[in-house]
Amino acid sequence: MYSIRDVSRKTGLTAHTLRYYEKEGLLCGVERTGGGFRQYTDDDLESLGLICCLKNTGMSVQDIARFMELTRQGDQTLRERVEMLRRHREDVIARIGEMQKYLEKVTWKVNFFSGKLEAYEAGLQDAGKK
User: Are residues 38 and 31 in contact, defined by beta-carbon separation less than 8 angstroms?
Assistant: First the structure.
């Protein structure tokens, strides 16, 4: 069992974010101590890993909540979960392709301006020698 502080350290998520994920239905069933303190399990950490993966790859909080609810419903929802993940995977692939184009342009600009900088600095050095 892990406290909210332990989970925050392990995941890099703030306590506020962890409470928000519970409120939004992304993470359900977190156990509580007699004093009301959250006690996370290894399964909760595993769920948080998936939640973070989906969120960091652009899935909306609403879609993640839906996916997690389907997961809680059991194997009869496997088809819907697989379809959700397939659609999400296609979105991620499309964004990677788009980012690759941007990266190529940025790389071209780095090379272009590096060449200009080298020429400029060489000109300054030549001017200093005269």
Answer: yes
Place of tokens 């962890």: 18
- Give 94-115 pLDDT, tens digit per residue: 999 999 999 999 999 999 999 9
Cα–Cα distances in angstroms (integers) from residue 75 to residues 43, 62, 80, 83, 118, in the given order = 17, 21, 10, 14, 62
CATH classification for the domain delimited by 1-73, as one of 1.10.10.10, 1.10.1660.10, 3.40.50.2300, 1.10.3720.10: 1.10.1660.10
The CA angle 63-69-73, to the nearest 5 degrees, is 140
Q: Tell me the C-alpha distance between 57 and 88, whole Å.
A: 8
CA separation for the pair 29, 22 (Å, rounded): 8
Q: Write phi, then psi, for 40 (nearest 5 degrees).
A: -90, 150
| CA pair distance 33, 1, nearest whole angstrom | 10
- How far is it, in rounded angstroms, from Cα 120 to Cα 124? 6
